[in-house]
């Protein structure tokens, strides 16, 4: 009876395919369903977030498997707990072949109510301290239903299970991480303006599997957060891009230098203050101008801290309060913070390691720094990048200031407001990017305004060059061109 049900449903699905067209892979629907597949299986299957799993399947879920029979929602949930999530020491992992995905929309009176998604997925067995073992490959057909603007999985067909035939390149990254003494990798992919993939591989500390919502320290990727917070204040009329900041803050070290009157948000966001990166890195250990403001570029964390203090003094609010109000709450960035506050879940923190794979003692910070030390997840920062790519919620004129060539660094290399700008890509693409680097921390955020593509890379180790080379040259949008520009 089960086989009859399975083949009846399969026949029905194939019949539907004959009457509706596959959705274009650049369409909003395709990208949205690709995102749903990525997050649903990463959180629900790989990371065993059972609350998330249960809230994203329908009450009448039907699951058809060519080897283990038919399951309703209760049986599916019980089997997931029993066979998928009961033993963290030997954990089945599912990875989709993204190139195999196809999506077919379902309409009712011209209104979309669901979609059919088909593709190929691979299954692995993960054991602590060992490389993942590829166990099988199968085809799948999913029926997603759109209920109250939430996509839920309604029917699943998992079939044509067979043993591995060739090595699957999707999971080579686990070996690459171990070979280079970098425990964890977080990666987020944005396609056509939507966050479609959030994936965390490896371990927190060389032992504990890194969860989907691993918290990474992202170093200088703090600066784009503060930059956009500043621009939103400007957009609201609470600050001006070219407003002198000395009315609100003068650092005691430069109070006798009249050049402090020239400092503005624009000069700070474009790194034209004349400040060193950090005063503690200078012989005097004091803040001083190394050249006149607005004459050339020099990267400076001191500048961002100067901006933070001026804004806080002017508005009577901390940078944490402003970022929470303007970014974190609206974008639901619930796992992002400037320092180790009471909400920080240390059990999810990606510990940091040096080039030799030796653990670096975690330094906890208890006050905000506008230039460094942000704690966040791939999904949270992916939401931020998605927001930026889609206009950042600010006026078009101010948005253009972000991507305008404010300063020329060299040929095809510029700086805008808070972001480096690289030109000269194929198809007239250009990229805005920022990196972060601290002991045991290496991060990258990049976005392409023309195509609305982008990605994030978070790593918790120092020996990262081969990992970046693999990701950029083989897996990511225009990554080979980016790698050759380094």
TrEMBL record:
Alphabetized InterPro entries for the sequence: AmpC-like (IPR050491), Beta-lactam-related (IPR001466), Beta-lactam/transpept-like (IPR012338), NTF2-like_dom_sf (IPR032710)
An MF annotation (GO) of this entry: hydrolase activity
Coiled-coil regions listed in the entry: none
Signal peptide: 1-21
Pfam families listed in its UniProt record: Beta-lactamase
Highest taxon of the lineage: Bacteria
SUPFAM superfamilies registered for this protein in UniProt: beta-lactamase/transpeptidase-like, NTF2-like
Keywords for the protein's UniProt record, in alphabetical order: Hydrolase, Signal
The keyword Hydrolase belongs to this UniProt entry's keyword annotation: yes
Beta-lactamase-related domain mapped to chain residues: 172-464
Matching Gene3D superfamilies: 3.10.450.50, DD-peptidase/beta-lactamase superfamily
Protein name: Serine hydrolase
Species per Swiss-Prot/TrEMBL record: Thalassobellus suaedae
